[in-house]
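Fold it.
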Amino acid sequence: MKILHIETSSKNCSVAISDGENLLCLCEEVSDNYKQSESLHCFVEWALEGAEISLKDLDAISLGKGPGSYTGLRIGAASAKGFCYGLKLPLIAVNSLDSMVEEFVNQGFELIIPLIDARRMEVYTAIFDGKSGEMISETEAKILDETSFSELTYKKVLFIGDGAKKAQEIFNLPNAEFKFDIYPSAKGLIKKSVEKFDQKDFENVAYFEPFYLKDFQGVKKADRIKKT
């Protein structure tokens, strides 16, 4: 079972190839400039070369469906759907927050909480069990303040993601640890994708949309009045 995994919901443009749960190749780069449109298809080509397979050898396409960057998600979804249409392959979608937690499961934390930076003091987040790695709260967009997660004061919690930096500055959680340089990654999609493939839990390619979580908010420029 060979799967191409695409994750573009954050600053990390990430592509992986797996055979079952075995990672064959990973190509990814974190950039503040969000280089998905420039890098994604190059990374797919390099990952296939590194795994020594071709597109015709693939059995499915896996996508980190969000939440995250609106533009990044659009780019990833368009590419994934294009591969599915062209190669007649099933599409598997996995919550991007899931892709962040696997390496920290069974590392002594009661809870693992990804925090993806949205804007200002807002983050995308959910709570995962530290032993099983299963999501135990719904994904949400949350505005952080001094009282956020205060009910977890006495629990050993790990906050991960680029939103964890601003969280550490305002939280008063003595048992919490923070890791800032963790991003959604294609390699973190593998386990869930294999489970979904085995269960034939596929998306409808024609109607699939990324998990934006909230509406896109563009910047409205002030109207300019031309004086005559």
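The two ends are 68 Å apart (CA to CA).
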